[in-house]
Amino acid sequence: MILTTILIIAACGGGRATNQDLSDLGATFHENPLKHKYDVLLIQKTVFYKPEFATDYPTAVAEFEDSFFSLLQKHNNNPFMKVSKELEQGTLNKNTLLVKCMITDIRIVSHAARMWGGVFAGSSDMSVVVKLIDGDTGDVLREKDLTSYNNPYAAQWTHGSSDRSLPEDMGTMAAAYVLAVTK
């Protein structure tokens, strides 16, 4: 009976933020929506602030972008007619909103460090700057610094799944922000 209880409790941990309703997450951003409505959302390649981040976390950009792009593309209340990663001929006009993301800080505790060091390995954290730029004028309409970190005790309890899902979770947070200010 004790073993069954432990298995049930352990199975409850480690969920991802991608299961959350983005409208609820977007409500946490207390910002006025953009004045102009855009038909096209053009997402540019996410970059690292420091080149060594690419060496230390080679999959972080891809995981962030996959979560960010797929959530913006598939969300029910998406105000855009088109969400794209690629620049097409004639795309940049008054109806295009460019999104540039930069990972300015990242620390993800490895599975081995979490296993051997437990809570003493510390918390994982990630910061992303999201810029919304008018495609016609090139003006930066919004610039938001998004930061998230996990609790090392919870990460230990879930065997590091909240460490490993941090880039995807940040993609969800960035998508919620974009939807919150473009409604």
Describe, in plain words, how this protein is organized in 3D:
The protein has 183 residues and is of the alpha/beta class. The chain is 38% helix and 22% strand. The longest helix is centred in the last third of the chain and has 16 residues, at 166-181. The radius of gyration is 18 Å and the shape is elongated.
In short:
The chain has 183 residues and is of the alpha/beta class.
Descriptive keywords:
6 strands, elongated, Rossmann fold, 183 residues, 8 helices
Topology:
Blueprint: H1 2-11, H2 22-26, E1 40-43, E2 47-48, H3 51-56, H4 60-74, E3 82-84, E4 96-107, H5 111-117, E5 125-134, E6 140-149, H6 152-157, H7 161-164, H8 166-181
Parallel strand pairs: 1-3, 1-4, 2-4
Antiparallel strand pairs: 4-5, 5-6
